[in-house]
Write a structure and sequence with these properties.
The chain has 445 residues and is of the alpha/beta class. It has 2 domains: 218 residues, Periplasmic binding protein-like II (D-Maltodextrin-Binding Protein, domain 2, 3-Layer(aba) Sandwich), CATH 3.40.190.10; 200 residues, D-Maltodextrin-Binding Protein, domain 2. 39% of the residues lie in helices and 12% in strands. The strands form 4 sheets. It has a 5-stranded mixed β-sheet with strand order 2-1-3-12-6. A 4-stranded mixed β-sheet has the order 8-9-7-10. It has a two-stranded antiparallel ribbon with strand order 4-5. Strand 1, helix 4 and strand 2 form a beta-alpha-beta unit. The two termini are 22 Å apart.
Length: 445
Amino acid sequence: MSQMRISRIWTGAALAVFAAMTLVAVEAVPSMASAHAGAKRSNADVTIDVAIAYPSPPKKLLDAFTAKTGIKVDYSFISWTTLQTKIAAAAEAHTQFATVTDVDWSKVGEYYSTKWFMPLNKYFNISSLRSQYPQLDSFIRDGKLIGVPSDSSLLVTTVNTKDFAAAGITKMPTTLAEYLADLDTIKAKGVVSTPLDIPFAAAEGLSTYWYEMTAAFGGQVLSSSYKPEFTSPSSAGYKAMEWMVNAYKDGLVPKGNLDLTDYEGFGDDEAHNRTASVFSDYSGDIGTIYDVPKDSTVVGDISYIPTPGLHGTSVNLANPDGIGIPVEAKNVAAAVTFIKWYDEPANQAAFAGADGTSEVISTFPLPANVGGLNGLVKSNKVPEASDLRTLVEHHSRAVFPDGAPPFYPAFSESVYTNIHSAAAGQESVASAIKAIAAEVASLGG
């Protein structure tokens, strides 16, 4: 859930990002090119309520949108956790909470099952969107488009190239064996005593770390019918959990990581050279943390690398946010017009830092579409944007290819609770695996 990082990366300078939205010249998304044609006349005096876990664009831009379309926007910036509570409460009460609001990748299965959000197929052509949205599959369940991506966040591997060089490592690892050997070398040579960052807090970040590590071992955690694929000791998920727990017990990971609460402190270790790598980091963290002098002592030292896998470079799992329309929403046509405006490539690129402010303060790890990604790269304002674009376009894969399961929150809680316990020595990896599988079975998987 990429929004859970927002509190760490949003700064007072953020509004400047939006001020230059319309100045970024990038490729247009074909299905959105004529989004506003005739809209002003048909939407005169319409007001929509927009509730998203990102701060609002400046009033002058929303005023310009209103002048162009006739649609007035009542925008609320609500924290991700609070937003989910409000969405559920309104849906269960069959009342309108917002005309447009958040559809997180992890909620797609739940929203498909509960029918809290209207499918958007009649407003967006999935075939046309696929060429522009590499992470579209995260928002589709049984052919139904539950939301439209509003960023293209993904899990990536970051390394401190200065630390690797100091340990005599001249070639970046492409396999898990090479990666582990390099971490051992960095530790043995005293460059960094705990070179690997894993957030062992009992929180969502530990779950997604395991998913990414499982993918690196060549598998996925659940089948398309949501059955466990991690129970055998020879499975990718089982090996991934063993790898993570052993890394902690072997001293590669800071001992204090077990005591973190949620994301508190995660990223700070690499930002202050207490670790040399994060295997499953957040896209955009170089620009928003590691290369920001007030937050980091390793400015210019951190790079993204293709994520190592079992036999070569692996995939990068997607954890994007999207936006959609609750079934109780009024003024649906106006809502669709807003979503198309919000996802225009120029706006997406500007959100991600293409405006060129002195500090890169992106709340969007990456633009949602190819046009926005290209605009970000062309701006030359965001560190390693070209590498991130390559990862999104060629290595990104949905955590759950058929949409997240409807029971995802309970599944994730079981995952992070048991992995945390295994690292703490309170249970074995085998018992942790068994407990998670039992939870899946009880949830209907």
